[in-house]
Write a structure and sequence with these properties.
With about 300 residues, this protein is of the alpha/beta class. The chain contains eleven helices and ten strands. The chain has a ten-stranded mixed sheet, with helices on both faces. It is elongated.
């Protein structure tokens, strides 16, 4: 049975040049899943300048224009063998509107194009995509510019330094999701761990040990765990990547150099300052030239 039965794609109908519909349609066709496309439209402030009767007619005309366009897109997907439905709706609260549709449809995957936000704006407001990563109850597939509509190279990015049953389960889910996606899309599966231990962190834990000795010990331990995962899931030797560096920079460089289509990563709930600054997965959205599947 396919990993995906129901896919939900949320789009901004104003961005008609977006490849999101093509990418979602390709995944639905490859997996045999049904696809529901929701175009959420923000209210137009200028409409409030009109008389009430004219305002309602203008709102309906505006929605109908988007319905006609989306129906045409859905018909093209249907002609390619995709079982697809669509709707256009107003959304005064975009975050809640998306989560309401997720709750109602209960999809296996929420698909959405990455919405880039400036560093200044992120300092004062939680970006929509960050909010979805933190609160969406299903895996989130964020489209960030991969060249291929159907992935050809999928990377499972695990964290070998995170210990404990909860983190082990998350790493297993990352590999399982990546494996399933690769199988359905007939793509290559790669396993990657970005090894990064700061000098300050090592100095605090060293207790008199030389930093170099502790670094080697930790690396051997993490690499052993990483190799156990690779062996358990049958990842070929030439598709195992143990890279050194800060995760965001290392993953971005790897994705660019190896023409990665999708990076599968874990989502972590943060509080306090960590919640304000964002997680590795959240920052990856603005760095990598590919899609991100967060589980």
């Amino acid at each position: 049975m396919s990993q995906y039965q129901r896919l939900l794609l949320v789009i901004n109908p104003v961005l008609r040049g977006s490849p999101a519909i093509t990418h979602a349609g390709a995944l639905a066709r490859a997996s045999g899943a049904t696809l529901h496309i929701v175009a959420l439209v923000k209210s137009l402030d200028i409409l409030w300048l009109l008389e009430e009767g004219n305002r309602e007619q203008a709102r309906e005309n505006y929605l109908q224009e988007h319905r006609d366009w989306l129906t045409y897109q859905a018909e093209k997907l249907s002609g390619r063998g995709v079982t697809v439905t669509c709707e256009v709706a107003w959304a005064d609260d975009m975050k809640q509107g998306i989560l309401d549709h997720v709750t109602e449809l209960d999809p296996d995957l929420l698909i959405k194009e990455v919405q880039h936000e400036s560093l200044l704006r992120r300092a004062f407001f939680t970006p929509l995509d960050w909010y979805l990563l933190r609160h969406c109850p299903v895996p989130v597939y964020l489209l960030g510019g991969a060249a291929h509509a159907l992935p050809r190279k999928v990377v499972a990015a695990v964290d070998a330094s995170a210990s404990g049953p909860q983190n082990d389960r998350l790493n297993e889910r990352i590999i399982q999701q990546a494996t399933a996606l690769a199988i359905q899309c007939d793509a290559e599966l790669h396993l990657l761990y970005a090894y990064d231990v700061s000098q300050e962190y090592l100095a605090e834990l060293g207790d008199g040990l030389k930093v170099a000795e502790l670094t080697k010990g930790l690396r051997r331990e993490f690499e052993k765990t990483w190799l156990e995962w690779a062996n358990r899931h049958g990842v070929p030797a030439d598709r195992r990547h143990f890279v050194v560096g800060h995760p965001v920079a290392a993953l971005s460089e790897f994705a660019d150099e190896h023409q990665v289509d999708v990076i599968v990563m874990g989502r972590v709930q943060f509080h306090g300052l960590d919640k304000l600054l964002g997680s590795t997965t959240e920052h990856i959205l603005y760095q990598v030239p590919c899609n991100v599947l967060a589980v």
